Amino acid sequence: PQGSEEAKTFVHAFLKRSMPKMKGEAIQEMLTRKAVVLEHYHKKKTKQKRKKTKGFTAKQRRELRLFEIEPEQQRYAIFLPLHELWKQYIRDLCHGLKPDAQPHMIQSKLLKADLHGAIVTVTKSKCPSYVGITGIILQEFKHVFKIITKEDKLKVVPKLNNVFSLELDGFISYIYGSKFLLRASERSAKKFKLKGTIDL
Fold first, then answer.
1. Where are the alpha helices (H) located in the chain, listed in sequence order?
2. Do 183 and 121 fall into the same domain?
3. CB count in 10 Å sphere of residue 172
4. Looking at residue 99, what is its pLDDT?
5. CA 110 from chain center: how many Å?
6. 87 by DSSP, 3-state: which?
7. How many CB atoms lie under 10 A from the CB of residue 146?
8. Is residue 98 within 8 Å of 77, Cβ to Cβ?
9. Which of 15, 112, 164, 185 is the most exposed place for a label (fewest CB within 10 A)?
10. Per-residue pLDDT tens for 149-158?
């Protein structure tokens, strides 16, 4: 056990180290009291900002050719399983395309559905060369559809001024491309008007 003088020296040194902002006289005055309240000085921790991971810019995506389909992959037969998956997806989405299903309900769901894998036909167009093009939609962008035909040709068909039709289980739906100028992700959240002017 320490002696009384050693104990006083230890306590004085401990208080001085614990309370660096307090003068020696003030510490000595505190020692005459019955209780001593130690102050705690904590260092402020600097918060490290998390770096947000940025995706590729549109220019970088073009340079890397992320959305381009290689010529050897441009074959209609390769994407037929995708079409079968799309048909099952639409049947599940519309709870089965039954004969007594209300057309406007199915139409409203198709407007927001993902069309990758759907077989579409250009039925009307201001450009006659587009009429009759039939194939599976491989990619949908804001302004165009990329369609692979049975002849294994990749066609880029603009939505503007074109009317597309798609058929599933006897139900035929028409897509007016001019009213469809949205990305697939934006279209799923958009509210479409049931009535409106229909034109090319």
1. 4-18, 24-31, 58-64, 80-93, 103-112, 184-187
2. yes
3. 11
4. 67
5. 20
6. helix
7. 20
8. no
9. 185
10. 999 999 999 9
